[in-house]
Amino acid sequence: MTQDKFDFRFERHDDGVAVLTFDREETLNSLTFDIYSQLEHLFADLEHDDSVRVVVMTGSGRGFCSGGNVEDIIAELFEREPAETLKFTRMTGAVVRHMRRLSKPIIGAINGVAAGAGSVLGLACDMRILSSKAKFAFLFCKVGLTGADMGAAYLLPQIVGMGKAAELLMLGDKVEAEECLRLGIANRVVDPDQLMDETLALARRLATGPMLAHSMTKKMLVNEASMDLDSAIEQEAQAQAILLRCHDHREFYEAWKEKRDPRFEGR
How far apart are CA 196 and CA 64, in angstroms? Predict the structure, then answer.
């Protein structure tokens, strides 16, 4: 296992799973300018890192991520010029853009509160497993900001529908774990002491599976969100035609003939 040096923990395991852990327990894992920048570059770089097939994102202590730190970010932004403020908000959005464009699955192991920007980072994951003690809170409007931040107004309606998204983004009420499950924000809810075991088991299942198929599926899900039906069907036809000619599908066929498990190589 190797660990890169960031203002959070990022550990690469030999099984192709990397675990990103926000690690500022004293502030419920709040974000700083440096952490945003590190996340932006990390998720861009992971696209070209063959040692990582799946990313797990979680938090230490009682929180997943409480969003931007009030003293380190909000107070500082009041002293900056408007152009610098826009540069910052574009950087935070770039984190989510790189997460969604990453051709590898990202699983959120939501251990505690995911608030503000932390809630959007959770949304940007492909799947979310929640501790029964976890909760989401889209707090932007409560602090006098638009609820549409970092892609929240794009991602959330796709999961919960437009009306419920408007309610959650405008009111900023806490959404408990079981309600997250009912709304589709959570894929499953587990006891706190089972969270990482359940998440890592799912991550390893994905990491040992047909990575090229997973990658193309994620790409289609992201791209088709803004397409009409005809465009989506045509894109899927072209994507499937490509994968029908790739090694992993041929390997499935050979394994089926030989009555053995396929050995996918992601090509």
Answer: 13
Secondary structure (3-state) at 176: strand
Question: What phi and psi values does residue 254 have, to the nearest 5 degrees?
Answer: -65, -40
| Angle between helices 152-160 and 162-171 in degrees, nearest 10 | 130
Nearest by Cα to 106 from 208, 5, 215: 215
The pTM is what? 0.94
Counts of helices then strands in the chain (DSSP H, E): 11, 11
State the Cα–Cα distance between residues 211 and 197, nearest whole angstrom: 21
Indicate the domain borders of the chain. 2-207, 211-258
**Cα–Cα distance, 13 to 1 (Å, whole number):** 5
DSSP code of residue 68: B
**pLDDT tens for each residue of 69-127:** 888 898 888 888 999 999 999 999 999 999 999 999 999 999 999 999 999 999 999 99
**Of 194, 200, 201, the residue nearest 56 (C-alpha):** 200
Beta strand 106-110 pairing with 127-131: parallel
Homologous superfamily of 2-207 in CATH?
2-enoyl-CoA Hydratase; Chain A, domain 1 (3.90.226.10)
CA torsion through residues 265, 58, 9, 71, sign: positive
